Each structure stands twice: as structure tokens, then as C-alpha cells.
């Protein structure tokens, strides 16, 4: 990580219609609201890398569906982030030398903030170390530390926990590697807004379930995975169950990071295209998790398989490509949808909508 965390945003650009990027102007010229259903359908099949920064901003509510309002919406959110940074002493850059080490700034932090900052820096330092974008001494590492710290300080009900850096990394990567400078120069502020959206959607995972007070949200989701696996492959389910390889041993991280830790970055981006496009948001992740388990079916059912070998397999990369994984997940979901429609039709004489 660089030896300072001063917030030094690139110079503001005029976001009036006359100076929009070519990408934004092409959307604005339509003078129409974004067709979210059409965009989601496209995203399910994978978003072109050049369009992903814009589409993700819409799907994650960084901007609304009306392109003519984007300039104002972005101005407000980016200004709000700048003010937030200025209100936090560790990152306030006024009258401070850019070479001042962050350790000296910690003297003004309360003990809790020191611990928080240390934990975040430790996690960020091991995030996607093979990607130059996340170089230990690069700007992206500073962005990550700042976003995670500010999020924890302004969302004390959620705070910071290990795994959040895995959620943030794809957002920063998409926004920060955008070839359009008018967008990429605001990657940090926009990633903060997108991260807020995702974390609010995932917050129930960390809280006690409303319907099952003795369980956390993530425990409920892992139980759902256990049930789905039994429905779709009883043989694999029985093998894992008999060996004591329960979902809490291997799938906790899958849910907490939306599988970002399990996949290479490009595969994570493709997966998230599908997850963000899902009208039920992250319900589709259950089926991706089942597909991931089934990708290891051969190893799991090996005659000599035991607790250790099965757990090792499940903690490994999927044995199939991302498109095959998503195709399998879609197939599993369609099986359940058809079963639901048939069941509802038999019980009511009509057609019901699946909750899958």
C-alpha cells in the first residue's frame, strides 16, 4: 500500500450534456428512460467489458433509469463522498505533506479506529495480488482502504468484517479500469456508492433471521443450499451428509463474498453480471452454489473420498468454465420453476409465479 492515504481526486470534469463522454452521450441522445428489463436480459448473457461500468452503475442504483438526470445524480453523490472524506481525519489532506506516513496520522485516531484501519489494511494487502491493478503500492489499494473504513464508520450497524474487501474489489476493478476517463476518474466515489448498495442487500446475512431467530441470515441461506442440493442430486447430498461435510464448512465464504473469492476476476465479473441482473437480486446465487458443488461431482463420489478430500474439492476452483457453471445454475432454477408452476396450477387451477 502507498505510504499515504490522502484523498486526491482527479480534477472535476464538466458533466453538462455538451461535454459528456461518447458513451454517455449516445444514451442521452435517446432522451428515453433506460429499459431495465432489456438491460437485465442483456446482463444475464454477459455484458461487454466497455459497457459494464455504465450498466453496473444503473443496476446498483448509482444512477437512476433516466440518463438525462445522471449528471446531477453523479455530481451529488461524488460531492457527498468528497465531503465524507474531508470529515474523516485519517484521510483529510489539507495542509498535510503527501509523503506523510499514514502511521503518523493514526495518532489522532481513537483506539477502535486504529484497530479497524489495521484490519482493513491487512485484508486489502492480500486482495488479488496477481493483478497489477491491485498492486500493493498502487492507488487502488488506497481506494479500497478508504472506502472500507468510511463505510464502516458511517454504517455502524453493519461495520466491517472480513470478506467485504472481496465484495469491493470487483466494483473498483470495473470502474477503475474503464477506458472512458470521464467515468474512470471518479471510480472511487462511484464504487463507494455501488458498495453501499450491495452491502445493504447483503446485510441480512450478518443479522439474525426474522423468521428463525436462533439463526443468522447466512445460516438460513446455507440451510437453503443444503435443501436444494438434496432436491437436485440426492446422491451427492447423501455422500456429503454421511461424511459430515455440511454447508457451513465450505459455503459460508461463498455467500459472504458472492463467490468473488472462489473465481478469477474475469469470471467473477461475468457471474456478477448475472447476479445483478436477477430481478430477485441474489436468489440466483443459491443455484450457482449448487452448480459449483456438482462441478466437483466426480471427486466427491470417488470411492476413496473422505471428509478431507471432499472439503478440499469444494474449496477449489470449479472444474468447469464460468459459462458452463451459469448454464447449469439456470437449468437447475428452471427445473424448480416448472415444478412450482405445476404444483400451483394443480392446487389452484391457475398459474402462479415462482419464488425461485
Automatic annotation (TrEMBL):
<dbReference type="Pfam" id="PF00566">
    <property type="entry name" value="RabGAP-TBC"/>
</dbReference>
<dbReference type="GO" id="GO:0005096">
    <property type="term" value="F:GTPase activator activity"/>
</dbReference>
<dbReference type="InterPro" id="IPR000195">
    <property type="entry name" value="Rab-GAP-TBC_dom"/>
</dbReference>
<dbReference type="InterPro" id="IPR035969">
    <property type="entry name" value="Rab-GAP_TBC_sf"/>
</dbReference>
<feature type="region of interest" description="Disordered">
    <location>
        <begin position="1"/>
        <end position="22"/>
    </location>
</feature>
<feature type="domain" description="Rab-GAP TBC">
    <location>
        <begin position="46"/>
        <end position="279"/>
    </location>
</feature>
<dbReference type="GO" id="GO:0006886">
    <property type="term" value="P:intracellular protein transport"/>
</dbReference>
<protein>
    <recommendedName>
        <fullName>Rab-GAP TBC domain-containing protein</fullName>
    </recommendedName>
</protein>
Amino acid at each position: 500500500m502507498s505510504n499515504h492515504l490522502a484523498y486526491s481526486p482527479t480534477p472535476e470534469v464538466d458533466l453538462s450534456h455538451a461535454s459528456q463522454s461518447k458513451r454517455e452521450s449516445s444514451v442521452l441522445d435517446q432522451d428515453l428512460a433506460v429499459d431495465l428489463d432489456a438491460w437485465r436480459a442483456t446482463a444475464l448473457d454477459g455484458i461487454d467489458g466497455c459497457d459494464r461500468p455504465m450498466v453496473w452503475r444503473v443496476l446498483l442504483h448509482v444512477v437512476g433509469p433516466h440518463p438525462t438526470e445522471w449528471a446531477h445524480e453523479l455530481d451529488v453523490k461524488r460531492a457527498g463522498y468528497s465531503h465524507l472524506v474531508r470529515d474523516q481525519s485519517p484521510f483529510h489532506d489539507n495542509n498535510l505533506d503527501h509523503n506523510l506516513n499514514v502511521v503518523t496520522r493514526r495518532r489522532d485516531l481513537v483506539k477502535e479506529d486504529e484497530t479497524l484501519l489495521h484490519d482493513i489494511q491487512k485484508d486489502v494487502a492480500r486482495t488479488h495480488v496477481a493483478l497489477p491493478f491491485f498492486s500493493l503500492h498502487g492507488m487502488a489499494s488506497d481506494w479500497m482502504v478508504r472506502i472500507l473504513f468510511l463505510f464502516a464508520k458511517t454504517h455502524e450497524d453493519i461495520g466491517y468484517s472480513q470478506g467485504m474487501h472481496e465484495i469491493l474489489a470487483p466494483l473498483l476493478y470495473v470502474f477503475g479500469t474503464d477506458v472512458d476517463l470521464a467515468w474512470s476518474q471518479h471510480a472511487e466515489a462511484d464504487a463507494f456508492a455501488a458498495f453501499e448498495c450491495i452491502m445493504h442487500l447483503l446485510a441480512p446475512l450478518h443479522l439474525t433471521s426474522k423468521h428463525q431467530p436462533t439463526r443468522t441470515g447466512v445460516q438460513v441461506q446455507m440451510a437453503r443450499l443444503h435443501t436444494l442440493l438434496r432436491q437436485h442430486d440426492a446422491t451427492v447430498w447423501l455422500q456429503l451428509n454421511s461424511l459430515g461435510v455440511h454447508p457451513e464448512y465450505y459455503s459460508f465464504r461463498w455467500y459472504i463474498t458472492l463467490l468473488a473469492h472462489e473465481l478469477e476476476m474475469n469470471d467473477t465479473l461475468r457471474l456478477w453480471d448475472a447476479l445483478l441482473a436477477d430481478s430477485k437480486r441474489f436468489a440466483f446465487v443459491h443455484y450457482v452454489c449448487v452448480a459449483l458443488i456438482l462441478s466437483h461431482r466426480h471427486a466427491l463420489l470417488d470411492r476413496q473420498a473422505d471428509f478431507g478430500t471432499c472439503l478440499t474439492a469444494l474449496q477449489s476452483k470449479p472444474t468447469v468454465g464460468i459459462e458452463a457453471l451459469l448454464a447449469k445454475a439456470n437449468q437447475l432454477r428452471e427445473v424448480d420453476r416448472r415444478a412450482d408452476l405445476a404444483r400451483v396450477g394443480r392446487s389452484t387451477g391457475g398459474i402462479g409465479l415462482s419464488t425461485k
